[in-house]
Structure formats: C-alpha cells, structure tokens
Write a structure and sequence with these properties.
Helix 2 crosses helix 4 and helix 4 packs across helix 5. With 275 residues, the chain is an alpha+beta fold. The radius of gyration is 20 Å and the shape is globular. The N terminus is likely disordered. 29% of the residues are buried. This is HNH endonuclease.
Length: 275
C-alpha cells in the first residue's frame, strides 16, 4: 500500500521539529529586543543606529533580521522556555535592570585568581535554565541556516554535528543541556550601562566560541573543554554549565573595538551622515 502524504499549500518543513507546517517569520534576535533598543534613543521610539562591519557603514535603521524558519509551536516554545524570561531581566532603562538587581543582592561562591563569580545557586529565585535555553536558541538559530546577512555569514553551518544535534534535541526538550557547552553571563557593572544589542559573532571552527550582547548583558558560549580549559575545569567540578559575573562594558575590549570601528572604519550613511 502506498502511504499518502498530505501537505497543504504554503507549508514547509520547520527547521527545529522537522514537521511540515506554515512557517512563521522568525527573528534571529527576539523582536522585543528591538523595541527595548529603540526606546533608549532620543527622540523616544526613533530608529536605532546600526553598525555593519561587512558594509563598512553606520546608519539609522528599523530593519530586523528575519526568515521563514519555525512553525508556530516552535516559535512559542522558544518564547516560553527562555526568550520572554531573559528579556524581562535585561536592561530596560537607567532605572530598570532586573538581573543586575538580583546579583547585587547575592553573594558569589566562586573565587578564582582574585575574581568572583556567581553560580546559579547563588542567585535566589533566578531561573538559570531559561538563560541556558535562550542562549542555546540563539546559537542554534544563527548556525543552522543562512540569514542573508554578511556580518554573520561565517557562522552559517559552522557548528559541528555533535553540537548542532545536541542543541536541537535540547531545544525540543528531548535531552538535558549538553555537558560540553559552557556559558558565561556578563552583567554590565557600569553606573551608566550601555544598551547594546549585537548579532552573534565569533569563530566556531577555529576557536569554538561565540558571543552576543543584549541590553546590559553579554553572553559567551564555549564549545568543548578545550575552548576555555580554565572555565570548563571550574564548571565541570561544580557540575554546572553557566556562571554569572560583573564586567564593565565600557572598559571591555569589545566596547573599545566598537568605538574604534565607529570612529575610524565605518562611514555614516543616510540621515546619520547629515548630522
């Protein structure tokens, strides 16, 4: 007997669950983050400034990176298991930064070479599982498909199968978070935090590392023990995959590099060029 396959017009395969459905217009970086960034600019709700290294330009833009990727069930899965929770905790404005507030009232238990770090257990009432899920969803998204953006083109297809499949199964709630992936969550400790959002960047093939910013928070993701042997040794001993730490974004290498790009290597375009 020939098995009948029913597929309705407009349906395609969801990249995550692999089921056939009408796909949503999925965002690489959550849509709500664009709103937070936009509201930090003056006048209120004006277009944010985007910097593109591949285009060697800087300009005002309301553009958002999207493509048909996930079905409605998987879109909702990403939202309820990580996205909504993490974005509620990020920097909203100069008065609202829930994650930093939670760290400020906690005591770090990890002390290495004069620096202190917070284990998930140190921060009461914080759901670190949702942070791990959020990070996994962003990394999987950027590496699993072509988003037609030259600034992240090097990450497309760069995640080895062992990590790609383990992340996909974790995102489907079929397995636990992969033991050989490690995350540092850096919280901006400056008195005037910088509301940055960035696309994921890094070199998975050679350095096994990816990082990205959301307002007030930077995430570093390391694949395998050799990517950062000191970090992996500490986390393996504690049987955790994630730690939190304070970092001054304004004194960080990334921020200084960004300022250098804006000041010397990127050309203002459009309305920004006229200011």
């Amino acid at each position: 007997m020939v098995k009948e396959v029913t597929q309705y017009i407009g349906e395609e395969k969801c990249e995550l669950c692999k089921k056939t459905a009408i796909l949503k217009n999925s965002h690489l970086m959550p849509k709500s983050l664009y709103k937070i960034i936009t509201r930090t600019f003056s006048p209120y709700d004006s277009a944010p400034v985007w910097a593109s290294n591949s285009q060697k330009s800087i300009y005002f833009s309301n553009a958002q990176i999207t493509k048909k990727l996930l079905c409605g069930i998987c879109e909702d899965r990403f939202n309820k298991h990580g996205e909504k929770y993490v974005i509620e905790k990020c920097l909203k404005n100069e008065y609202t930064f829930e994650l930093k507030k939670m760290l400020d009232s906690s005591i770090p238990s990890i002390h290495v070479n004069g620096s202190s770090y917070f284990s998930p257990n140190d921060i009461h009432k914080l759901n670190s599982e949702k942070f791990m899920y959020f990070v996994a969803s962003i990394v999987w998204r950027v590496a699993t498909t072509n988003w037609s953006n030259d600034d992240i083109a090097n990450l497309n297809g760069s995640l080895p199968d062992e990590y790609n499949e383990s992340l996909r199964n974790y995102l489907l709630k079929k397995t636990e978070f992969p033991k050989n992936i490690y995350i540092t969550v850096c919280i901006d400790s400056d008195t005037d935090p910088v509301p940055i959002m960035s696309l994921p960047s890094g070199d998975i093939i050679n350095n096994m590392h990816v990082s990205f910013f959301i307002p007030g928070i930077k995430f570093n993701i390391f694949f395998g023990e050799k990517a950062d042997q000191t970090l992996s040794a500490i986390l393996n001993k504690l049987d955790i995959n994630l730690i939190y730490m304070y970092r001054s974004f304004r004194s960080s290498y990334e921020y200084k590099q960004m300022k250098n790009l804006l000041g010397s290597e990127l050309t203002p375009k459009g309305k920004l060029a006229k200011q």
